[in-house]
Amino acid sequence: QVQLVESGGGLVQAGDSLRLSCTASGRTFSSSGMGWFRQAPGKEREFVASIRRSADITYYSDSVKGRFAISRDNAKNTVYLQMNSLKPEDTAVYYCAARSVFATTPMTSLSSFDKWGPGTQVTVSS
Predict the structure, then answer these.
(1) CB of 120 within 8 A of CB of 63?
(2) 50-57 contacts at long range (C-beta below 8 A, 24 or more positions apart)
(3) What share of the chain is helix, strand, coil (3-state, %, to 5)?
(4) Cα distances (angstroms) measured from residue 23 to each of 16, 65, 114
(5) Distance (Å, rounded) from C-alpha 32 to C-alpha 112?
(6) Residue 42 CB: number of other CB atoms within 10 A?
(7) Strand intervals (E) in 8-86
(8) Rounded to whole angstroms, how far apart are CA atoms 87 and 106?
(9) What is the pLDDT of residues 5-56, one digit of tens each?
């Protein structure tokens, strides 16, 4: 079974940057597409970014496009989310997820991902 652990969250001011990391163990990391999702209080979990297993294609939600960047290092079993120009509306718990090898839905869909980390809190003050 794959296990995911996020790190790098914290409290920052608007305009600051943070880099989240997610380290995987178990399932062969390089064979899985990876994604980042977030959930703000009282809201549903939403897609943020995802990256194919070969790292050749990435996807972003419109709300973070141009500010966030997802990357991965298969040698370190780690996926990253570089977050720049943070806004108060980016405040949420951020979750790392591994895509199911059987997934047929898009990499922007929650249903594509079957393994989730516990999440890391990101708070952006104005």
Answers:
(1) no
(2) 50/99, 50/107, 50/108, 51/79, 52/107
(3) 10, 50, 40
(4) 23, 23, 16
(5) 11
(6) 5
(7) 10-13, 18-25, 34-39, 46-51, 58-60, 68-73, 78-83
(8) 27
(9) 999 999 999 999 999 999 998 767 888 899 999 999 999 999 999 999 888 8
